[in-house]
Amino acid sequence: PFSLPAHVGLPLGGATGSRYVLMETHYDNPNLYSGIRDSSGMRFFYTFQKRQYDAGILEVGRAVALSHIIPEGQKNWQTVGYCPSYCTQRNLPPSGINILGSILHTHLVGRSLQVRHFRNKKELPILTENPHYDFNYQDVMFLKKERKVMPGDQMTLTCGYDTTNRSKVTTKLGMKIEDYVKVEANMNGANQVAFSNILPMIATILAYYIMRG
Predict the structure, then answer these.
(1) Any alpha helices (H) in the chain, and if so which ranges?
(2) Secondary structure element (H or E) that encloses residue 142, with its range
(3) Fewer CB atoms < 10 Å away: N or C end of the chain?
Protein backbone atom coordinates (compact mmCIF):
# COMPACT_ATOMS: atom_id res chain seq x y z
CA PRO A 1 0.00 0.00 0.00
CA PHE A 2 1.04 3.59 -0.68
CA SER A 3 0.66 6.01 2.20
CA LEU A 4 1.80 9.61 2.38
CA PRO A 5 3.34 10.99 5.59
CA ALA A 6 0.90 12.23 8.22
CA HIS A 7 1.49 15.92 7.39
CA VAL A 8 0.84 15.56 3.64
CA GLY A 9 -2.23 14.51 1.65
CA LEU A 10 -3.78 14.58 -1.81
CA PRO A 11 -6.82 16.88 -1.98
CA LEU A 12 -10.07 15.37 -3.28
CA GLY A 13 -12.99 17.38 -4.65
CA GLY A 14 -13.64 21.01 -3.88
CA ALA A 15 -12.21 23.87 -5.92
CA THR A 16 -8.66 22.51 -6.27
CA GLY A 17 -8.80 18.78 -5.55
CA SER A 18 -9.12 15.87 -7.96
CA ARG A 19 -12.71 15.05 -8.94
CA TYR A 20 -12.13 11.66 -10.53
CA VAL A 21 -9.46 8.95 -10.84
CA LEU A 22 -8.54 7.16 -14.06
CA MET A 23 -6.93 3.74 -13.71
CA GLU A 24 -4.85 2.68 -16.73
CA THR A 25 -3.79 -0.98 -16.98
CA HIS A 26 -1.20 -2.31 -19.43
CA TYR A 27 -1.45 -5.99 -20.38
CA ASP A 28 1.29 -8.13 -21.89
CA ASN A 29 0.61 -11.73 -22.93
CA PRO A 30 3.45 -12.78 -25.27
CA ASN A 31 2.60 -16.49 -24.92
CA LEU A 32 -1.07 -15.88 -25.81
CA TYR A 33 -2.45 -17.70 -22.76
CA SER A 34 -6.25 -17.92 -22.70
CA GLY A 35 -8.72 -17.91 -19.82
CA ILE A 36 -6.78 -15.40 -17.73
CA ARG A 37 -8.85 -13.23 -15.37
CA ASP A 38 -7.68 -9.90 -14.02
CA SER A 39 -8.77 -8.67 -10.60
CA SER A 40 -6.64 -5.54 -10.46
CA GLY A 41 -8.11 -2.59 -8.65
CA MET A 42 -7.52 0.32 -6.29
CA ARG A 43 -8.81 1.08 -2.81
CA PHE A 44 -8.74 4.64 -1.48
CA PHE A 45 -8.78 5.72 2.13
CA TYR A 46 -9.83 9.31 2.78
CA THR A 47 -10.56 11.61 5.67
CA PHE A 48 -12.47 14.86 6.13
CA GLN A 49 -9.70 16.03 8.45
CA LYS A 50 -7.52 18.03 6.10
CA ARG A 51 -3.79 17.46 6.35
CA GLN A 52 -1.33 20.30 6.76
CA TYR A 53 0.07 20.27 3.20
CA ASP A 54 -1.26 19.24 -0.22
CA ALA A 55 0.97 17.07 -2.41
CA GLY A 56 1.41 17.40 -6.17
CA ILE A 57 3.42 16.06 -9.08
CA LEU A 58 6.35 17.34 -11.12
CA GLU A 59 7.60 15.31 -14.09
CA VAL A 60 11.16 15.39 -15.36
CA GLY A 61 12.50 13.38 -18.29
CA ARG A 62 12.62 12.90 -22.01
CA ALA A 63 9.84 12.19 -24.46
CA VAL A 64 9.60 8.95 -26.37
CA ALA A 65 10.59 9.93 -29.90
CA LEU A 66 12.02 8.52 -33.13
CA SER A 67 15.29 10.25 -32.28
CA HIS A 68 15.69 8.07 -29.19
CA ILE A 69 17.77 5.14 -30.46
CA ILE A 70 19.59 2.57 -28.31
CA PRO A 71 22.25 0.62 -30.25
CA GLU A 72 22.40 -3.15 -29.99
CA GLY A 73 25.11 -4.93 -28.00
CA GLN A 74 25.56 -2.18 -25.40
CA LYS A 75 26.21 -2.96 -21.74
CA ASN A 76 25.44 0.49 -20.34
CA TRP A 77 24.08 2.88 -22.97
CA GLN A 78 22.96 6.08 -21.25
CA THR A 79 20.16 8.47 -22.15
CA VAL A 80 19.72 11.76 -20.34
CA GLY A 81 16.69 13.98 -19.81
CA TYR A 82 16.75 17.45 -18.29
CA CYS A 83 14.55 19.71 -16.25
CA PRO A 84 16.33 23.02 -16.96
CA SER A 85 16.60 25.87 -14.51
CA TYR A 86 14.14 28.06 -16.44
CA CYS A 87 11.44 25.39 -15.96
CA THR A 88 11.72 25.35 -12.17
CA GLN A 89 12.15 29.13 -12.14
CA ARG A 90 8.82 29.59 -13.91
CA ASN A 91 6.81 26.87 -12.19
CA LEU A 92 7.97 26.50 -8.58
CA PRO A 93 6.86 28.79 -5.74
CA PRO A 94 9.47 31.16 -4.25
CA SER A 95 9.84 28.95 -1.17
CA GLY A 96 10.57 25.88 -3.32
CA ILE A 97 9.10 22.40 -2.95
CA ASN A 98 9.82 19.64 -0.47
CA ILE A 99 10.65 16.28 -2.02
CA LEU A 100 9.33 13.29 -0.07
CA GLY A 101 10.19 10.28 -2.22
CA SER A 102 10.28 8.82 -5.70
CA ILE A 103 9.30 5.97 -7.95
CA LEU A 104 11.61 5.16 -10.84
CA HIS A 105 10.18 3.45 -13.89
CA THR A 106 11.53 2.16 -17.18
CA HIS A 107 11.00 -0.90 -19.36
CA LEU A 108 12.88 -4.12 -19.95
CA VAL A 109 16.22 -2.87 -21.26
CA GLY A 110 16.54 -0.31 -18.45
CA ARG A 111 19.07 -1.29 -15.77
CA SER A 112 19.73 1.89 -13.76
CA LEU A 113 18.20 5.28 -13.07
CA GLN A 114 19.52 8.37 -11.31
CA VAL A 115 18.21 11.88 -10.70
CA ARG A 116 20.95 14.48 -10.13
CA HIS A 117 20.31 17.90 -8.61
CA PHE A 118 22.09 21.18 -9.40
CA ARG A 119 21.87 24.69 -7.95
CA ASN A 120 23.85 27.72 -9.09
CA LYS A 121 26.00 25.46 -11.31
CA LYS A 122 27.00 23.29 -8.33
CA GLU A 123 25.92 19.67 -7.93
CA LEU A 124 24.04 18.76 -4.76
CA PRO A 125 23.58 15.21 -3.39
CA ILE A 126 21.67 12.84 -5.69
CA LEU A 127 17.90 13.15 -5.29
CA THR A 128 17.13 9.52 -6.00
CA GLU A 129 18.66 6.52 -7.77
CA ASN A 130 18.37 2.80 -8.41
CA PRO A 131 21.59 1.23 -9.78
CA HIS A 132 19.99 -2.24 -9.93
CA TYR A 133 16.63 -1.59 -11.58
CA ASP A 134 14.33 -4.58 -12.06
CA PHE A 135 11.25 -4.13 -14.24
CA ASN A 136 9.41 -6.79 -12.22
CA TYR A 137 9.94 -4.98 -8.92
CA GLN A 138 8.85 -1.35 -8.86
CA ASP A 139 7.84 0.55 -5.75
CA VAL A 140 7.73 3.97 -4.16
CA MET A 141 10.94 4.92 -2.36
CA PHE A 142 10.52 7.56 0.34
CA LEU A 143 13.51 9.66 1.31
CA LYS A 144 14.84 9.37 4.86
CA LYS A 145 14.95 13.16 4.98
CA GLU A 146 12.95 15.58 2.86
CA ARG A 147 14.87 17.50 0.19
CA LYS A 148 14.26 21.05 -1.01
CA VAL A 149 14.14 21.96 -4.71
CA MET A 150 14.19 25.71 -5.33
CA PRO A 151 13.23 27.88 -8.32
CA GLY A 152 16.20 27.93 -10.69
CA ASP A 153 17.39 24.45 -9.71
CA GLN A 154 18.16 21.98 -12.49
CA MET A 155 17.54 18.23 -12.44
CA THR A 156 19.06 15.59 -14.69
CA LEU A 157 17.59 12.12 -15.13
CA THR A 158 19.98 9.45 -16.47
CA CYS A 159 18.90 5.97 -17.52
CA GLY A 160 21.31 3.14 -18.32
CA TYR A 161 20.27 0.45 -20.80
CA ASP A 162 21.59 -3.06 -21.44
CA THR A 163 21.09 -4.36 -25.00
CA THR A 164 23.84 -7.02 -25.02
CA ASN A 165 21.22 -9.67 -25.85
CA ARG A 166 19.85 -7.77 -28.86
CA SER A 167 20.98 -7.93 -32.45
CA LYS A 168 19.04 -4.87 -33.66
CA VAL A 169 18.73 -1.32 -32.46
CA THR A 170 15.96 -0.45 -30.00
CA THR A 171 13.72 2.45 -31.04
CA LYS A 172 10.25 3.80 -30.49
CA LEU A 173 8.97 1.92 -33.53
CA GLY A 174 6.67 -0.99 -32.75
CA MET A 175 5.92 0.32 -29.25
CA LYS A 176 6.14 -3.16 -27.73
CA ILE A 177 6.85 -3.24 -24.02
CA GLU A 178 10.46 -4.24 -24.68
CA ASP A 179 10.95 -1.80 -27.55
CA TYR A 180 10.58 1.55 -25.90
CA VAL A 181 11.66 2.93 -22.62
CA LYS A 182 9.89 5.44 -20.51
CA VAL A 183 11.56 6.41 -17.30
CA GLU A 184 9.49 7.80 -14.51
CA ALA A 185 10.82 9.09 -11.26
CA ASN A 186 8.00 9.85 -8.92
CA MET A 187 8.93 12.22 -6.19
CA ASN A 188 6.73 14.01 -3.71
CA GLY A 189 6.63 17.62 -4.99
CA ALA A 190 4.63 20.81 -5.81
CA ASN A 191 0.85 20.98 -5.53
CA GLN A 192 0.73 22.06 -9.15
CA VAL A 193 1.91 20.12 -12.18
CA ALA A 194 4.79 21.32 -14.37
CA PHE A 195 6.25 19.45 -17.34
CA SER A 196 9.86 19.65 -18.41
CA ASN A 197 9.17 18.13 -21.77
CA ILE A 198 12.11 16.52 -23.49
CA LEU A 199 10.52 13.30 -22.07
CA PRO A 200 11.93 8.15 -23.12
CA MET A 201 12.46 8.81 -19.51
CA ILE A 202 10.24 10.63 -17.05
CA ALA A 203 10.81 11.54 -13.43
CA THR A 204 7.42 12.08 -11.85
CA ILE A 205 8.13 14.06 -8.71
CA LEU A 206 5.57 14.24 -5.93
CA ALA A 207 6.14 17.12 -3.51
CA TYR A 208 4.54 19.81 -1.43
CA TYR A 209 5.32 23.43 -0.62
CA ILE A 210 4.67 25.60 2.40
CA MET A 211 2.45 28.58 1.68
CA ARG A 212 3.58 31.82 3.29
CA GLY A 213 0.63 33.59 4.83
Answers:
(1) 85-91
(2) strand 141-149
(3) C
